[in-house]
Amino acid sequence: MQIDAVDQRIIALLVADARASYADIGTRVSLSAPAVKRRVDRLRATGVIRGFTAVVDPAAVGWTTEAFVELFCAGRTTPAQIGVAARRHPEVVGAYTVSGEADALVHLRAADIAHLEAALERLRAESFVTSTRSTIVLSRLVESPGVGPSTRA
User: Fold this and answer.
1) Phi, psi (5° rounding) for residue 104?
2) What angle do CA 81, 119, 128 make, to 5 degrees?
3) If you write DSSP's letter for every residue of 26-74 in order, what string do you get?
4) Residue 144: is its pLDDT beyond 90?
């Protein structure tokens, strides 16, 4: 599917505020509300836009401690095995295969250090994990809600 510059701007605006009206978006991209709706419907039908969601501030729900954990795995552990295991842990907010020494990188969020330690111990107990290396986040410097061009225009 071809995505033009207008589609990219619509996507960026929806990433910034998924509750924006088609009329508001249309004003920003110089289209009518029905034209924006048609484009959004097409983007959804083709799988470019997979859904709409609420973005929750982790601090507002008390999960203010986070870490990135490098996983080192045994033998022929597959990405699918890592993904299945990661989904078993509610503290996991992202898991990625990576290049370099580690086999995967896992992003954890927890209420406090004790909770983080417990989550890390459960993750380490997965049968294929041979070792881990953790980095605790001190502060967030840049955080972007999505992909595409900036909505600042």
Assistant:
1) -155, 160
2) 30
3) HHHHT--HHHHHHHHHHHHHTTSS----PPP-GGGGT--EEEEEEEEE-
4) no
Quote the pLDDT of residue 9.
96
pTM above threshold 0.85: no
Residue 6 in contact with residue 31, Cβ under 8 Å?
yes
- Exposure letters 108-131 (e unless 16+ CB within 10 A, then b): bbbeeeebbeebbeebeebebbee
Structural domains for the chain: 3-44 (1.10.10.10), 56-135 (3.30.70.920)
pLDDT tens per residue across span 1-53: 789 999 999 999 999 899 999 999 999 999 999 999 999 999 999 999 999 88
Per-residue tokens: 20: 């924006």
The pLDDT assigned to 145 comes to 66
